[in-house]
Automatic annotation (TrEMBL):
One Pfam family hit: Tfb4
Start and end residues of each stretch annotated as Disordered: 291-322
Places the protein is found: Nucleus
The name this protein goes by in its record: General transcription and DNA repair factor IIH subunit TFB4
Keywords: DNA damage, DNA repair, Metal-binding, Nucleus, Transcription, Transcription regulation, Zinc, Zinc-finger
Record-level GO cellular component terms: transcription factor TFIIH core complex; transcription factor TFIIH holo complex
Length: 322
């Protein structure tokens, strides 16, 4: 059966340097790319119907590096007798364009953040385009509810910590993914756990994996992310035993433990506000006073235990009080 996979690669120069020089299990970008192309080849080898696209988030821009549905330019490198031409084409397209784009970055550009959400959005647009083609070919063009592709999914390979200003675009991407019935899988290769990627995987039925054994990257990729979501029920794929459900406030883009939600548009604020900055709704003074009175007193960070014994540690799974 046809399977659709979009891989989104985080290519933050700063964080790859940090990962390569880590004292504990360093993972360099070249070592990562060798294992990534092995995974991509394994996926393509699964079925000739498998659609594959690779997207990269470079500092300040995102690009599509490869798509199996577009005609590829002929490979310029001479392939050896032991190489299989379709794999060679894929490896060249992914690895050489990554090297080319990273080398063309100036020193100041390398410092720019890598918004993964741009590449994720492109991946969702690609899946949407395939869905439309699929519906045209199956004469469902006038159907109100387009038939979803069988098992479309996005795999995000991230090395950067969350960019809190991306919270709203990431949530919007998650909603689009849910509508397109796309599963989002995420693998955090180094650095701290990603709150947003955990939520993306949880809300779309995908797997989130924090890579603890960086020397076993290829094994983790093949065992966890190679099987399509429909067959994962039959195998023991790692699942999340806890999900960090915290949101970022719309006012300061901070990740908050307790937020205040606009009852009209569901915007989240870190403190009670008299007027919602998103929808301009005014709140009664009485409500503000009540909410302010109910706020826990400010505590010096880090605060492992909050008032009333409520755990404030990462992984708290209580919702945001309205
Ligand atoms: Zn705020
Ligand atoms: Zn509002």
């Amino acid at each position: 059966m046809m399977d659709t996979l979009c891989v989104v690669i985080d290519l933050s120069v700063k964080h790859w340097q940090r990962s390569a020089t880590a004292s504990d299990q360093p993972l360099s970008l070249p070592a990562f790319l060798i294992q990534l192309v092995a995974f991509l080849n394994a996926y393509s080898a699964g079925s000739s119907d498998n659609a594959l696209a690779v997207f990269a988030a470079f500092p300040g821009k995102s690009l599509m590096l490869y798509s199996s549905t577009d005609t590829q330019p002929q490979s310029t490198t001479v392939s050896g007798p032991n190489s299989y031409p379709p794999f060679q084409l894929l490896d060249d397209a992914v690895v050489s364009s990554i090297i080319h784009h990273l080398e063309s970055l100036s020193d100041s550009e390398q410092e720019a953040p890598c918004p993964l959400v741009g590449a994720l959005t492109k991946a969702l647009c690609f899946i949407n385009r395939l869905t439309l083609d699929h519906n045209t070919n199956t004469s469902n063009a006038e159907g109100l509810d387009p038939i979803a592709l069988p098992d479309p999914r996005v795999l995000i390979l991230s090395v950067s910590p969350d960019i809190t200003s991306s919270y709203i675009p990431i949530m919007n991407s998650i909603f689009s993914a849910q509508k397109l019935k796309v599963t989002i899988d995420a693998c955090q290769l180094s650095g701290p756990d990603s709150v947003f990627l955990q939520q993306a995987a949880h809300l779309t039925g995908g797997s989130y994996l924090y890579l603890e054994r960086r020397d076993a990257l290829l094994q983790h990729l093949t065992m966890t992310f190679l099987p399509s979501p429909s067959v994962r029920g039959a195998i023991a794929v790692p699942t999340q035993d806890k999900v960090d459900f915290r949101a970022a406030c719309f006012c300061h883009k901070n990740i908050v433990d307790i937020g205040f939600v606009c009852s009209v548009c569901l915007s989240i604020f870190c403190q009670p506000v008299p007027v919602c900055s998103t929808c301009r709704t005014k709140f009664p003074m009485k409500t503000l006073q009540r909410l302010n009175a109910s706020r826990p007193p400010a505590q010096p960070r880090p605060a492992p235990i909050g008032t009333n014994g409520v755990s404030k540690a990462n992984g708290s799974s209580y919702g945001t009080p309205a």
